Amino acid sequence: MNKDLGQLFITGISGKQLSAEEEQFIQKENIGGVILFSHNYESPAQLAELVNNIQSLRDNYPLFIATDHEGGRVQRFKEGFTKIPSMLDVTKKESPKLCFEISQLMSNELLSCGVNLNLGPVCDIFTNPKNSVIGDRAFGKNADDVSKYISAMIRGQQTSGIMSCAKHFPGHGDTLEDSHFKLPIVNKSLDQLREQEFIPFVKAVKARVDMVMMAHLKVDSIDQENICTFSPKAYELIREELKFKKVIITDDMEMKAISEDLSLGEAALKALKAGADLIEYRSFEACRSAYEYVKDAVNSGEFTPQEVSSRYERILELKKKYLSNYSPIYIPDVAGQVGTAENQNLVEQVSQA
């Protein structure tokens, strides 16, 4: 059972190559995935080599190799990769076809280096002009515009064979606080959320998105007691109202929005018991600490084998769909697939009048 438990965790790593400690933890505990940031990146070839090393630790199916590759100010891999404009800039061309093509470009470049999960698209609506945390990461300022491009983005990811993730449910667009530092509050009724914030997520589910990310938000109309990450009612909305049956992932569990009030382990267990399938940590130390706490909870019966299995089955189904035909990246091929003149010409269409 503990072998399955590790699949419910995504860990960060400290540098541009795995430490012996990180290798041992990922392999011994059968950790489900690794998330990569700019501090893990030097070049496309180095990234591919790092991913090959991570995947050599797999038990059965490969690990999720995740990153945030949205374009604009949220692009972890820059040098050597095509520089992607912000999605708000992309949509100024009013061309879902161009958005689809840029999505394919992004996905193909990531996949050529072994990254198989892009934590996007952003389904938040840029309704609050003072909201700097979302801002130009959004596809637009109303639900219809965002929905139109969300669908194109997911299709681009899927035709390339990369996993997609609709974020940040139930909608981070009309907030002021950044959950990296402080808990954002959404003061909207459930009907207001249905009429606006939920619409792009409904579209994403209809477009067969692979994951939905639960945000660290306080929304009293959903749950007066718990933030969404810890709210069974919030997960129930995704499952019952949006009819989404695949993987629900948390946002980074080290954000200050949740890490100030609970220990890492308590927060992990609370999120899993509320309904999360997959929990994410930007650092290895935090992931290991949370994992050990949850493992103790399984051994004590506080988190049951049945609860682990239901989450593991959803993760396994996704891995079977995307990662069954895994083979290591052939590193000499990488340079010819990333940052090409053809890709650069495509993104330059965004800035042309």
Q: Low-confidence parts, pLDDT < 50 over ≥5 residues?
A: none
**CATH homologous superfamily placement:** Glycoside hydrolase, family 3, N-terminal domain
Strand content: 5-15%
Radius of gyration (CA) equals 19 Å
CATH topology name, in short, is: TIM Barrel
Overall pLDDT score:
93
Global outline: globular
Indicate the CATH architecture.
Alpha-Beta Barrel
How would the blueprint of this fold be written?
Layout: H1 2-5, E1 9-11, H2 20-28, E2 33-35, H3 44-55, E3 64-67, E4 69-71, E5 74-75, H4 87-90, H5 96-112, E6 117-118, H6 143-160, E7 165-169, H7 190-195, H8 198-206, E8 211-214, H9 232-241, E9 247-252, H10 256-259, H11 264-274, E10 278-280, H12 284-300, H13 305-323, H14 341-348
Parallel strand pairs: 1-2, 1-10, 2-3, 3-6, 7-8, 8-9, 9-10
Antiparallel strand pairs: 4-5
Helix pairs in contact: 5-6, 6-8, 11-12
Describe this structure as you would to a colleague.
- The chain is α/β, with parallel strands linked by helices.
- It has one domain: Alpha-Beta Barrel (TIM Barrel).
- Helices cover 42% and strands 10% of the residues.
- The chain is built from 14 helices and ten strands.
- Helix 5 runs parallel beside helix 6, helix 6 runs parallel beside helix 8 (198-206) and helix 11 packs across helix 12 (284-300).
- An eight-stranded parallel beta sheet has the order 6-3-2-1-10-9-8-7. Strands 4-5 form a two-stranded antiparallel sheet.
- The chain is globular.
- Helix 9 (232-241) links the parallel strand 8 (211-214) and strand 9 (247-252).
